[in-house]
Amino acid sequence: MLNTLHPWLQQDWERLHGYILQQRIPQALLVSGNAGLGKLALAKQFAYALLCSNPQQAGFSCGECQSCLLLKADTHPDYIVIKPAESKKTIAVEQIRSLINQLSLKPQFENYRVVIINPADSLTNNSANAFLKCLEEPNERTVIILITDRPGKLPATIVSRCQKISINKPDKALVISWLQQQAVNDDPEILFSLAQGAPLQAQDFAKSGHVKLRNDCFKSWLAVAKQQTHPVLIAEEWQKLPEGPLLFWITSWVVDLIKCAYDKATDLYNPDLIKSLQELAQQLNLKKLYKLYDLLLLNRQLLDTQINKQLMFEDILIQWQALNRGTHHG
Questions:
Q1: What pLDDT, on the 0 to 100 scale, is given for residue 330?
Q2: Alpha-carbon distance 136 to 27, whole Å?
Q3: What is the mean predicted confidence (pLDDT) over 271-278?
Q4: Residue 111: C-alpha distances to residues 49, 50, 99, 182, 278 (Å)
Q5: What domain range includes position 284?
Q6: How deeply is 26 buried, as exposed, middle or buried, from its count of CB atoms within 10 A (0-12, 13-18, 19+)?
Q7: Does residue 314 form part of some domain?
Q8: pLDDT on residue 193
Q9: Which of 53, 181, 187, 280 has the fewest Cβ atoms nearer than 10 Å?
Q10: Whether pLDDT at 308 is above 70
Q11: Average model confidence (pLDDT) for the chain?
């Protein structure tokens, strides 16, 4: 059962446990924070504690009562998870209508009924409007937990009806020591930086060979700068990669180059690449580098749209190569 808590969630858990102790259980709770901080784990912990008939001292579920056994088997009738259907990006209005029907019946057990909506920002306008009904006319002994990395995408009408828990980025030293305990193979400092401080994401990166992939991409980036390869060839390779992380890497290289150009080479995103970055930075026109940075920010905003990834990377790489032209001879 979920009786271990990530160390950085301790304070948030104490607040949720406090709701249970004071019997001030919110009808709707919005859990927000960056990806990779453990929002779902925290929400589940709270859900299991509410459903358990014999919670332990620290408020965790016992793992042994009938409710806990049903939760383990994924068959608890009062625990409902709503997420986008497989291969879909959004939660359909039909899913919310069927939830409303379910909630019109009483919970089957004596305790609470818990609904988790994850990610809540994947509700469409129609499903958000339908869902509002659940919040406006709460059902008895029902707790709704919304989880999101992007609270700004939720309608204000929904946000205003929820209690809020916002999970902050944990302290760097805490994350690094946690990563060391997980026995990751890569340098925890680099993982911390690439995951923008999100521990679970850093752990995923370590498992998936993320650092090696980023290093390979950096080699191609350098080869383009040195006119050793054609931007279109690299763009073709890159469009097969997950574009979110890749765009973040490229942006982080450009930010680090700007820092190096100003001799501010502390607190880099990519401290392990500093030698190459400093060499590049000496020869670049800063004004053009800022232009490239603007292009990257623009493309990051377009990631959710039907953007042609191959063309996007060609655009970036051609501009990057032009920036370096004339700085390399031979």
A1: 39
A2: 10
A3: 92
A4: 10, 7, 19, 36, 61
A5: 209-324
A6: middle
A7: yes
A8: 87
A9: 181
A10: yes
A11: 91
Q: Domain check: are 237 and 137 in the same one?
A: no
Give yes or no: residues 113 and 220 share one domain.
no
CA distance 93 to 163: 24
b/e for 126-140, b at 16 or more Cβ within 10 A? ebbebbbebbeeebe
Q: What distances in angstroms separate CA 319 from CA 97, 239, 244, 267, one per listed residue? A: 49, 17, 20, 26
- pLDDT 10s digits, 207-229: 988 899 999 999 999 999 999 99
Task: Read off the CATH number of the domain in which 227 is found.
Answer: 1.20.272
Where among 114, 147, 166 does a domain terminate? 166
Rounded distance between C-alpha atoms, residue 86 and residue 323, angstroms: 43
Cis status, amide bond into 119, omega within 30 of 0:
yes
Same domain for 131 and 223, yes or no, is no
Same structural domain for residues 157 and 213?
A: no
Sequence-distant (≥ 6) Cβ neighbours of residue 146 within 8 angstroms: 28, 29, 30, 31, 117, 118, 120, 154, 158, 162
Total domains in the fold of the chain: 2
